[in-house]
Amino acid sequence: MLSPDQARDRAQDIVTRATRAGADAADAVFAADSALEISVRLGKLEDVGRSESAELGLRVFVGRRSASVSTSDLSDAALGALVERAVAMAREAPEDRWAGLAPAERLLHGAPPQLDLDDQANGQPEPAPEALRDLALAAEDAARAVPGVTNSEGGGASASRSLWALATSTGFAGAYAATGYGLSASVLAGEGSGMQRDYAHHGARKRQHLDSPEAIGREAGERAVARLNPGRPASGAMPVVFDPRVGGSLVGHLVGAIGGAAITRRTSFLLDSLGQPVLSPGLSVRDDPHRPHGLRSRPFDGEGLAVSPTAIVEDGVLETWLLDSAAARQLGLEPTGHASRGVGGAPGVSTSNLYLDGGKLPVGTLIGDIAEGVYVTELIGMGVNGVTGDYSRGAAGFLIRNGEIAGPVAEFTIAGNLKEMFLAMTAANDLRFRYGVNVPTLRIDGMTVASA
């Protein structure tokens, strides 16, 4: 794979070609990745997969007209044809008065922050297939050793390295590399029609930060066994408690409602909420692109703007929209450094390492006064309306009775309205950073629970 400097130079070269060919402005993305994945089942190797890819995307502007093209053919002749095609397409495209590159004065200049995302830059070699196989086998073995586990869907281990570069005709050029490691196990407990499945997974930028296979396997097995012989909860209004591995989806719905596209199109249930309370007092939602070896850390955004930690919600109050340059122009505001780019097309917005904090109660205290409720560990379906905030999802988990986690429950739905749910949210103090979106255990009173 190329080095970050070589990737940056490739992106910069295609931008130079585009401006020479008649584009008024241009930006380019170069993306490459390699990945090795190993899967095992019932103690035997099942599959070995290796993938490598490299793509280049070019966006050009002729006045307020623009076009985007991409290719995986990186030969000199193919790139020359790509530039000519992009400029010709832009000349025929409709005008968009909001389109354009990010403001030049907002671009990141100087050395980017060092985020320690690339294990190989620190001398860590790519793991051999045999090493990944042994990790996957150890995880599956630990899961199958849990009493009550009767079958396995397998264990898996992976290692990858990705490279991302961006260059603009306004003077920005940058690139960075990131490694990733993953380890998982998925098993079944019980027999026949009463079998239950669950899993555990962990991902990390650095190999040394990956959970042990024994811990991952044991967690997968214990989760599956705990789900055996589920009942159904009573129907009615009651507290719903979200396990951290599913609670992050709630914050995802909030972020979706404050993105530039939803605001400019007026299709958000939080449309008039800027500067208003959207969460319970004391709770905050933060985005930290500079978190060392974070799963979604980045030194600059998809338009080349500097990024920095942001309080999206502070003490319950919504502080900002998430805007790329086009949405910011349309709203008369400044871009927020949350632009996100793929190889093709225009930027959208995304967060980096997103988390909700401010919870002060231990989990035991959070559920201690619940006479009857449900603790949700799995969400099913996508019944969420981003315009109205209406929320309805299938769920599985555990009954809460007299302040204690009771038996497993399944085949029920939970429903409410996100705007009301956010304001009724209470958080525990068990926040851990394990995913791209991290939340503590969350409780929302007054949700509607209905057995299927």
Automatic annotation (TrEMBL):
One of its GO terms (biological process) is proteolysis. GO terms for cellular component: cytosol. Residues 235-450 form the Metalloprotease TldD/E C-terminal domain. It comes from the Bacteria. It holds the Pfam family PmbA_TldD_3rd. Residues 126-228 form the Metalloprotease TldD/E central domain. Residues 26-90 form the Metalloprotease TldD/E N-terminal domain. Residues 282-301 are annotated as: Disordered. SUPFAM superfamilies: Putative modulator of DNA gyrase, PmbA/TldD (SSF111283). GO terms for molecular function: metallopeptidase activity. Belongs to the peptidase U62 family. PANTHER family: METALLOPROTEASE PMBA. This is PmbA protein. It comes from Sphingomonas abaci.
